[in-house]
Amino acid sequence: MYLLGHPVAHSLSPAMHSAAFGALGLTHEYELRDVAPEDLAGAVDGLRSPDTLGANVTVPHKERIVPFLDAVAPEALRIGAVNTVVKTEDRLRGENTDRAGFTAALDESGVFVRGKRVLVLGAGGAARAVIIALTKGGARIEVANRTQARARLLASLFGVTAVAWPERLDGYDLVVNATSAGLHGEDPLAGMALPRKMVVVDLVPMREETVLLTRARAEGCVVVDGLLMLLHQAAGSFTLWTGREAPLEAMRAALPRMV
Ligand code: NAP
User: Fold this and answer.
1) SS3 state of residue 165
2) Best CA proximity match to 70, nearest among 85, 39, 91, 45
3) DSSP 117-143
4) Is-catalytic flag, 62?
5) Which atom in ligand 1 lies closest to the alpha carbon of residue 179?
6) DSSP assigned state of 208
7) Nearest CA to ligand 1 atom 46
């Protein structure tokens, strides 16, 4: 198995998948492949070799990989991004396990969204997966994005409400950071008070807790760490490749801060 991305060096996925293969006594290996955009077609073709079950896909290839695949699952098409490639015989199918991973992370954290007022930050593939999950869960969804036109487009496609980047968070039950702000120590909600008891979900999966989550915890919010979604989306990929239930606890133990 491979992770196709650019860059990929800091990924937590190899540790999780290696632990999963080990726990089930499987001999597969999971390798990082740093693929420049111009080399993507060749890298995808390489997945057709007999010893490969598939791959994970990350930034910046999740959207641009679609034309190189033989088929794309309906949910991945709706999200507009592929995070998992599954090889069956010599056909490559694109899948996306982020929506299910997000839902499982909320469930595990005891967070219920039905009827709740939720603000989603971001308008990329992660935001789309989150909006599909929250819609299924019956939440009342508002979306804001740095580039407002993208939020408006996404809102019209998914039947949710686009709002300007917030100045206050009063009235929201839950806020989801589905932007990449946080990867380099930024706080996407800097300068805004976080109401006590609000649920703060930060998708940015980091070895060290993000600045947003540390602040949310200190201000009395309920926090859901992107590492938990990372775990569950990886479990989904594992099952798609192997047909086996993922050994969740072995995978969890391979992540930082999860025990
Ligand atoms: P993407 O398609 O590249 O979208 C990036 C989004 O972040 C855009 O909405 C962009 O706004 C916004 N953004 C970037 N820098 C920003 C900043 N400094 N301030 C405010 N907004 C900013 O990426 P994606 O695939 O949706 O992923 C988004 C994040 O989710 C990444 O950090 C990724 O690692 C994470 N993620 C986590 C998991 C998990 O399992 N935990 C799964 C999927 C994704 P503009 O439109 O204005 O550029």
Assistant:
1) coil
2) 91
3) EEEEE--SHHHHHHHHHHHHTT-EEEE
4) yes
5) 7
6) S
7) 147
Domains of the chain with bracketed CATH: 2-96+229-253 (3.40.50.10860), 99-227 (3.40.50.720)
Binding pocket residue ranges, ligand 1, CB within 6 Å: 59, 62, 98, 101, 122-127, 145-147, 150, 178-181, 183, 186, 188, 203-205, 226, 229-230, 233
Single out the residue of 212, 252, 197 nearest to residue 228, CA to CA: 252
Q: Which two tokens stand for residue 72?
A: 């794309």
- Record the tokens describing residue 42, joined without a space: 């060749």
Tell how far the Cα of 178 is from the centroid of ligand 1, in angstroms: 5
Phi, psi of 216 (to 5 degrees): -60, -45
CA-to-CA distance for 36 and 72, rounded, in angstroms? Answer: 22
- Tell how far the Cα of 204 is from the centroid of ligand 1, in angstroms: 8
The H-or-E segment that residue 99 falls in is helix 98-108
pLDDT in tens, 124-160: 999 999 999 999 999 999 999 999 999 999 999 999 9
- Reported pTM: 0.97
31-86 residue pLDDT tens = 999 999 999 999 999 999 988 999 999 999 999 999 999 999 999 999 999 999 99
- CB count in 10 Å sphere of residue 168: 9
User: Would you call 11 exposed, middle or buried from its count of C-beta atoms within 10 A (0-12, 13-18, 19+)?
Assistant: middle
Residues 6+ apart with CB under 8 A from 81: 62, 63, 96, 98, 124, 125, 128, 129
Name the β-bridge partners of 161. Answer: 142
SS3 95: strand
Backbone dihedral angles phi then psi of residue 221, each to the nearest 5 degrees: -85, 165
